[in-house]
Each structure stands twice: as structure tokens, then as C-alpha cells.
Amino acid sequence: MIEVLYCEWRKLRKSAAFIATVGLALLCPVLFFIIKMSDNNFEAIVTQDWDWAYYLDNEKSLSVLMAGLVLIAVISSYSWVREHGDNTLNVLFTYPVHRLTIFASKLIIIALFLLGYNLVDTLISHMLIMLAKGELIPGHIIVDNMINLSLSYLFQVALIPLFFLLSMISKNIILPVVTSIIFTFVIFAWGESSYLNNLPFGGPFFPYLWYDDSVKGLSLTQVLWENGAIMVVCLGVIVHQTLRRDVR
């Protein structure tokens, strides 16, 4: 399994998907910081302690809306589509490794890529706001932010099988990416309403709203159940396709 994971890591490390991941992880927090620097309300952010959470959570919300879902779609679909484009899938499945091991290694590497993206994005965001305010982030704010980040990341991982399955069906990267863009526009339109409960793909955005008293009717339990159901169903279909279908 370790050898298979290493091979998948080398494939993605040398790909455009890796460059996109690093670029977006650097771009999102810097862009949000620049926006706030040009905002007339930035003085309030750097002078009032209660605005720590506002800044950090809104930066992550922007990160999810601007790049999060699209990035998941790109990395997930690329991992499978490149095997078809390079005509390596037939060779890959002749190796003395179970097909499910190959499939699992791809999902693990994708999840690790997303983890790296979230950690780099969060680290830069924290550093920029600390530099602006000239003080350290309070401990309880860091804890809350890490809890929200962890929940958002779990929801992101839950969406990997969905985009992976779309790439298996379409054998191209277009359908997953277009789907992620549509999801992003829907979240943007309905994100701050109770409709978010009925948008399972809105899970990565959800943790930054559910604690807000101004947003009524949001249920963490419902979103967890919906995202879990989608992940299980998509994983089941992927496993069936991987084991039963002939490679062409």
C-alpha cells in the first residue's frame, strides 16, 4: 500500500493539479487580506478583538466559495482521467495489487492534497491578520477556527467520491468541474439561509455559518447525514464499477 501511495503522490506532484493547489492556497488568504485592506471597515478589524473570528471565518468562507469545490473536482477527476488520457489504466490493473488498493490510494492522496491546501490557507490567513493587528490570535479563537476547519475538511473529503464518480462516468474533467461551478453558484445564492440544509454539497461551507444566530434553521446533524449518505452511495458505485466493469 505504501508503494502505491508513493506512486500516486509522484503522479500528482508533477501535475498541473499540484501547482493549482499550491497557487490557490496562497492566493485565497492574500486576496481576502487585500480586499479587507481596501475596505473602509478594516480599521475595525485591526482594533477590536471580537473581529478575529469574523475575519478568519469569512476568509475560509471565501476560500470555499472561490476555490474549494472547484479544487476538489479538479484533483479528484484528474487522478482518474489522466489514466484514461495516458492509456495506462489497463497496465495499472495488471499490477499484482488489488484494484481496490489502487482506488483507495487515489482517494487517500486526494484527501491529503486537500488537507495540505486547507492547512497552508489557514496558516497564511492567521499570519496576515496577526501582522495587521500586531498581536497573537487569542487561544479560544484558534480552537474555534480549528474546529470549523476540521468540520469543513471532513465535508470536503465526503465530496471526493462524488467528483471521482463523475470523472469515471464521463472520462473527462469537464463534467466534474462544471458541476462544482454550479454547486458554487447555488451555495452563493442560498448559503445564508435554511436552504443550506438541503444542499449536501454545501457541507464545506456549513461550519462557518451554523454557529451564527443570524442564520436560523441550520442543522449540523442533517448536513452530516446528507453528506454521509452521498459519500457512501458514491463509494459503493465506484467500488462496483472498479471490480465489475472491464477496463477499456
Describe the structure.
With 248 residues, this protein is mostly helical. It is 76% helix and 0% strand. The protein is built from nine helices and no strands. Helix 4 packs antiparallel against helix 8 and helix 6 runs antiparallel to helix 7. The longest helix has 35 residues. The protein starts with a helix and ends with a helix.
Topology as a string of helices (H) and strands (E): HHHHHHHHH
The stretches of 5 or more residues where confidence is low (pLDDT under 50) are: none
How many individual β-strands? 0
Which of globular, elongated, flat, extended, rod-shaped describes the shape?
Answer: globular
Averaged pLDDT? 77
Distance from first to last alpha carbon = 25 Å
Structural class: mainly alpha
Helicity, as a percent range: over 70%
Give the biggest sheet: none
Summarize the structure.
The protein has helices at residues 2-13, 16-37, 42-47, 51-85, 89-92, 99-133, 139-170, 174-190, 220-244.
